[in-house]
Amino acid sequence: MRKIFALADCNSFYASCERVFNPSLEGRPVIVLSNNDGCVIARTNEAKALGIAGFEPVFKYQQIIDQHNVAVFSANFALYGDLSSRVMATLRQFTPEMEIYSIDEAFLSLASMNIDRTAYCRKIKATVSQWTGIPVSIGIGPTKTLAKLANRLAKKDPGLGGVLDITDNPQIDQLLAQTKVEDIWGVGRRYTALLSRHGIQTALQLRNANDDWIRSHMTVVGLRMVEELRGNPCIDGQETPPPKKCIMTSRSFGRDVHVKEELEQAVAEFTTMCAEKLRKQKSKASLLTVFIGSNCFRDEPQYSNSITLGLPEPTDYTPRLLELAHRGLKNIFKPGYSYKRAGVLLAGIGPRDITQLDMLEPGQEKSGETGLMRAVDSINSRMGRGTLKYAAAGINRPWKMRQMMLSPRFTTSWEDLPVAKAV
DNA sequence: TCTGGGGTCCTAGGACCC
DNA sequence: TCTGGGGTCCTAGGACCC
Q1: Does A213 contact strand C, using a CB cutoff of 7 Å?
Q2: pTM for the full model?
Q3: Which residue's CA shows the smallest distance to C1' of C11?
Q4: Are A40 and A54 in contact (CB under 8 A)?
Q5: R_g over Cα of chain A
Q6: CA A45/CA A61 separation, integer angstroms
Q7: A145-199: per-residue pLDDT in tens?
Q8: Of the spans A123-137, A308-322, A352-366, which averages the highest pLDDT?
Q9: A404 CB less than 7 Å from any atom of strand C
Q10: What is the dihedral of CA A264, A266, A271, A274, to 10 degrees?
């Protein structure tokens, strides 16, 4: 049967989340910043209209922000994650088949439904807005790439009411001709430059490009994308995402770090966070990478390095991973640099229940470890993250990230619950 | 004049996404 | 002063095996 995808994508998602519990932000330009309050990662239309670009450092726009009373927020992922699950739960009511693609996007399958698709998606949009307060746009097409493209057009043209169906659209060539290659899902900076050098600037030109040329310059990934533009679905997904193959925790620091002990504590904290994620997906890991880097925006000697260490048998036991991370850092640390970031990556990930035992050290009973980790995780999940911590991660955290403009965790913390007062 | 060939696995690096 | 974090997939090349 022919496939039909509807891509529901929240408009300026993080900024919209801030508006849900703060109606005075309605109509006002709102931006949300990355960790450390560094870059702009979300902007409402009002902010875009002021010329604020995405992924640019916020200090560049300080003047515009002051002049136009722009509301600025630190990223509040606890809030965004929670509102995301509410949006997804609402979308689920409308289709038997749905794939959550990112925190603010989901593909809904409309293939088996005998409906007026545009009207149906308008209803979806209205329901999400009513139930969660989040505005979404919906693009519909015979492939995911075309649904993405339709979504983009739906967002751009206010006359469409937030929904556009380009399935069987007689204007499709015109729409593709209006779309620049860099706005296609799967074309990034590098491919834009490459395609431009070969005279390919629009989605229509890319759709009509030569298969062999695409294959040799953009690998099979590029070829799949072109096929999708032609209306032949090649990108499928899963309803239930497979477990992660690598798990990473890394941060830039709120200030430069020079002392080895501070770096050790940061690496220890990132390791415990990785281990929590690992146990949450019921996996074990056998490889751990530690990386550190100096502040590349500073005009000083630079140093960055990483090291990967292996374990004889996979584990999800935090103390063992801490030990490994500590050893790794010791290997790569060099004094005398201003360190700005560090991270830990777990790989060699496999399911917890099927464990290859170490041949040289067989038969070790690790049930005590499993119980300990389960207890720590359950306390932290009930009482809040970081209730139980490892001493190796330190207490003062002088390197912790800056979040000067953090909104309350309206929906995930009892203390931050909004209160309605009678007047 | 002379070099084997075919297969798998792993890793690093490059592209992309939100 | 101030520049994010966490992922995916693909390919090429080297190690190793028979």
Answers
A1: no
A2: 0.93
A3: A219
A4: yes
A5: 24
A6: 16
A7: 999 999 999 999 999 999 999 999 999 999 999 999 999 999 999 999 999 999 9
A8: A123-137
A9: no
A10: -170
